[in-house]
Amino acid sequence: QLDFWLAPRGPGHPVDVRVPFASLQPLKAHLEANGVSYSIMIEDVQALVDHEQMEMLRSRRQLPLSTNTFDYATYHSLDEIYAFMDLLVAEKPNLVSKLEIGRSTENRPLYVLKFSKGGKNRPAVWIDTGIHSREWVTQASGVWFAKKIVLDHENDKDLASILDKMDIFLEIVTNPDGFVFTQTQNRMWRKTRSRHSDSTCIGVDPNRNWDAGFGGPGASRNPCSETYHGPYANSEPEVKAIVDFVKNHGNIKAFVSIHSYSQLLLYPYGYTSTPVPDQKELHQISEKAVAALSSLYGTNYKYGSIITTIYQASGGTIDWTYNQGIKYSFTFELRDTGRYGFLLPAKQIVPTAQETWLALKVIMLHAQGHLY
Amino acid sequence: DIGDVGHKYHLELVLEDVLDKDSTVNCTAEVLYHLGNKNIAPDVHFTIEGELKNTDEADNIFYNRIKSLEKELVAENIPDSHGNVSPEMEPIRLLAWVASGYVIWQNSTENTKFQLAQIKHVKQVKRSDEYLEFDYMILLHEMVSQEIIPWQMTVLWHPQHGVQVTQDSRQPKHA
C-alpha cells in the first residue's frame, strides 16, 4: 500500500513515499529497527489535495463581467470584492465613485464607495462593514447594499429622496488584512494584523481602538487578547483612515458600523453607563428600524445602548463618532444568535442584507428629515 | 441576591425544536451562580411543561449508519467556512451541540456567554460495547471576551442512554 513518489534507486539515494494512515506505525517501526532515517515532508496529503481542489474550483469560476452576473448569495475573496467595486463604478459612473482613504498595515488599499447625485460636500451617511474580519455576513451584505443602491436610486422613492439631499459612503472591507487572514489561515480572526509591542501576538481590536474612553474598562491591554485596544488610540491605520476621512469631510450626519452576530441594533455609549443626550430619539429610531427589519422575515432584534444591551466596551467606533457630533450613530449586530454564529450559511446572506437594508433606510430617512 | 451564597435567577423560557420550528415547549428554570469560587458550575433546576418530541426513529437511523461504517468516522470543519454542513454530518454537529452544552454549563459564570462556534475535528473511537464514542475538538466562542477557545471533549452516545461527556479539557490557543 506504499505509494512511492520518488522510487528506490539504490543505496545512498533518498526515497519519497506516501504512507496510508494505517501503515504509518508499522512502517516507522520497520525503518527504525533497520536504522533507516526518515523525515516527514507532508503531514496530511489529503488536506493538501482538498485545498487544491477548492482553489481550482474557484479559479474555474469565471470572473463576473458585470454586477448583474455577480453571485450575491455566496462569500467572495478580497480580490473578487475589489473587482466588483470597479465593475459597479464602471457601470454607473454618474452615481458611484471609489475613493482610497488609506492603506492597511499590510499595505492593502482601503476603499470607500461614494454614492452621490451631485452637489458639493452634501450631508452624508457613512456605512461600514467587515471591521471585524470573521463577521463574513457583513462584508457580503455590504456588497449587496452597494448593488441595491444602484438598482433602486431612481425607482425607490425613499432612497431617491435620501440621495437628493445626502451622499452615501460605504466601506465594504474595513479590515482587508484580517479578511484575507480569515480566508487563508484562520477563519476566526477578528482583529487587524499589526504588530506593536515585542509580543508574539498580532493584531488590535479595531473596535476598541477609537478615541472614546480609550483604554478604559471594556477593552484589554493584553496584545494576545481579542479585545486588545492597541498601544494608543488610532494606532491602527484602518481606524485612522476613517477618523481622518470623517474629520476632513466634516458633514457626516449618520454613521452606521456593521457587525455580526447577535441580532441587535445599538446606539452609544459602550464605554460609560451615562446615557447620551439624544438617547430618547435614538431609542425611537431603533424601535422603528427594528420593526422594519422584522417585517420582512420575522427576524427578532433587540435594541438599546451598547452598555445596557451587550456589555461595556471602550474605544468603540460609534462612541467616538457620536462624540464628534454625529448624532445618528448606530451599530448593527446581524444574524444569527449563535446557531451558526460567524459561520452563517451563504444562503442567508441575501435575506440578511434585505432585512438590514430596510432598517438602514429608516435611519437614513430619519437623518435626511432631521438634518442638523 | 442570596447573601453569602450567590445570585439566583428564575427563568421562564420557551424551547423550540431546531428541526421543527412550530414545535415548542414551555420551560421554567432556576439558576444559582455561586459567590466566590468561579470553578463551581452554576446549579440548575428545571421543569419542562409537556413532552419533548420522540426522536427514536432518527436516532436509530443515525446509530445504525455509524455502527455499519467500515472505517471510523473522521471529519473536520463543521460547518465549513461558508456555513455548509453536509446532511451526513448534521447529526454529528447536533451531537456536538448538545455535548458542548454540558461543557458550557460547567464553565459558565454570570460574566460569560458561550456558543459553539465550530467543530474543528471529530474522530470516532472504536468501542467494543454498544455505545458510540466521538473525540471532538471544538471551538467555543465566548461573547464577552470575544475569545475563541479550543476545547477537547470525549462524547459517548446511545439512542436509549443519551449523551455523556466523559472527558473534556480546555486547549491552549494558537498564536
UniProtKB/TrEMBL annotation, chain A:
Membrane-spanning segments: none
GO CC terms of this entry: extracellular space
Record-linked InterPro entries: CARBOXYPEPT_ZN_1, CARBOXYPEPT_ZN_2, CPA_M14_CPD, M14A-like_propep, M14A_act_pep, Peptidase_M14
Top-level taxon of the source organism: Eukaryota
Reaction(s) the record says it catalyses: Release of a C-terminal amino acid, but little or no action with -Asp, -Glu, -Arg, -Lys or -Pro
Annotated compartments: Secreted
Cofactor(s) the record lists: Zn(2+)
Protein's GO biological process: proteolysis
Active site, UniProt feature: E333 (proton donor/acceptor)
Pfam family, one: Propep_M14
Domain (Peptidase M14): residue spans on this chain: 74-367
EC number assigned by the record: 3.4.17.1
Any one GO molecular-function label of the UniProt entry: zinc ion binding
Keywords from the UniProt entry: Carboxypeptidase, Disulfide bond, Hydrolase, Metal-binding, Metalloprotease, Protease, Secreted, Signal, Zinc, Zymogen
UniProt key word Ligase: no
Class of the enzyme per the UniProt entry, highest EC level: hydrolase
Protein family membership: Belongs to the peptidase M14 family.
Name the UniProt record assigns to this protein: Carboxypeptidase A1
Organism in which the protein naturally occurs: Fregata magnificens
Classification of source organism: Eukaryota, Metazoa, Chordata, Craniata, Vertebrata
Gene symbol of the encoding locus: Cpa1_1
Automatic annotation (TrEMBL), chain B:
Recorded GO MF terms: metalloendopeptidase inhibitor activity
Gene3D superfamilies named among the record's database cross-references: 3.10.450.10
Record keywords, A-Z: Protease inhibitor, Repeat
All copies of domain Cystatin LXN-type, residue ranges: 1-54, 74-175
Gene Ontology CC terms, in alphabetical order: extracellular space
PROSITE patterns in the cross-refs: CYSTATIN_LXN
Homology family: Belongs to the protease inhibitor I47 (latexin) family.
PANTHER family: LATEXIN (PTHR28591)
The protein's name in its UniProt record: LXN protein
Species of origin: Fregata magnificens (Magnificent frigatebird)
Upper lineage: Eukaryota, Metazoa, Chordata, Craniata, Vertebrata
